[in-house]
Amino acid sequence: MAKAYLEPVEIEKLEEAAEYLRDRLLIRLLFHLGCRISEALGITVGDIDFSRGTVTIQHLKQRISLSCPQCEAGLSKSHRFCPGCGLEVEKAVAQEKEHQRLRTLPIDETTLTMLREYIKRNGPVSRMGKRLLFDISRHRAWQIVKDCARRARLPRLVNAETGKTHNVSPHRLRDAFAVHAVKLDDSGDGLRMLQEHLGHRSITTTMRYRKVSGEEQKEWYQKLWEGVKQDG
Questions:
Q1: 103 near 56, Cβ under 8 Å?
Q2: pLDDT tens string 88-145
Q3: Which of 50, 78, 152, 164 is deepest in the core (most CB within 10 A)?
Q4: Do 198 and 88 fall within a single domain?
Q5: 88 and 200 fall within a common domain
Q6: Domain span at residue 174?
Q7: In the beta sheet, which residues pair with residue 37?
Q8: Quick check: 27 and 127 in contact, CB under 8 A?
Q9: Residues 24 and 75 in one domain
Q10: Nearest to 73 by CA among 64, 63, 84
Q11: Helices 170-184 and 8-16, packing angle to 10 deg
Q12: The model's pTM
């Protein structure tokens, strides 16, 4: 039967299959922080607080906003006239704005030790006054995870929504973290903590991991027939 997510023991095999400390650290951070690949690739040495055992994650998201070409007042797609100057809006000006969100996440001691060793070995690379942990592209990060999964002989994973199978990817490590967290604590408080940790704006996005991780419906259905005499 095709799997929808990886178990922690399979992530360990993925780590062990990495040929370099950099690749092993990348895999470990993706799983132990549950962060997005873009967030992992943006981590700098300065984002790590070894005394507190935390890593600050920066999430940059591009958003398109519409504005009036005359007075630059904000517009919605339904606006026919500008609310600022009254101009009939035929072609609103699309502006790309970058929104930055920060969140500080705890990290386990084993991963901190690995980070210390990586920094000691001069793994980080200086770019524009910052020391980036990883000087690789998203494509290269995907290739690293895919190659490690192949060496670890991990199965392809099925998308629960489409039914299609895909190679193990960086985002599947984030999924594995979320499912692991929900299995340990699927209470309301646990889900809110997970929402905060993953950086989800909506709890609805976080709740889908509860659906993936549990067999509540199956258990509920089986209980319906416990003790009920079945007709032969």
A1: yes
A2: 766 554 444 444 578 899 999 999 999 999 999 999 999 888 999 999 999 999 999 9
A3: 152
A4: no
A5: no
A6: 8-41+136-216
A7: none
A8: no
A9: no
A10: 84
A11: 140
A12: 0.76
Q: What total number of domains does the chain contain?
A: 2
Radius of gyration in angstroms for the set of CA atoms belonging to the chain, rounded to a whole number: 23
Half-sphere exposure of 221 (CA within 13 A, CB side): 4
pLDDT in tens, 154-193: 999 988 777 889 899 999 999 999 999 999 998 889 999 9
Do 76 and 66 meet the contact criterion of CB atoms below 8 Å apart?
Answer: yes
Residue 177, helix vs strand vs coil: helix
Residues 210, 140 share a domain: yes
Task: Decide if 107 contacts 55 (C-beta within 8 A).
Answer: yes
Q: Give the up-direction half-sphere exposure of residue 207: CA atoms within 13 A in the CB hemisphere.
A: 5
Residue 76 lies in a domain: yes
Beta strand extents in the chain (DSSP E only): 48-49, 54-67, 74-75, 93-106, 125-127, 130-132, 157-158, 165-166
Both tokens of residue 158?
Answer: 């099925």
Q: Please check whether residues 148 and 37 belong to one and the same domain.
A: yes
Residues 22 and 94 in one domain: no
User: Cα dist. 33→29, 65, 184, 194 in Å?
Assistant: 5, 31, 16, 11
Highest mean pLDDT among 143-152, 196-205, 213-222: 143-152
Distance (Å, whole) CA 41 – CA 2 = 30
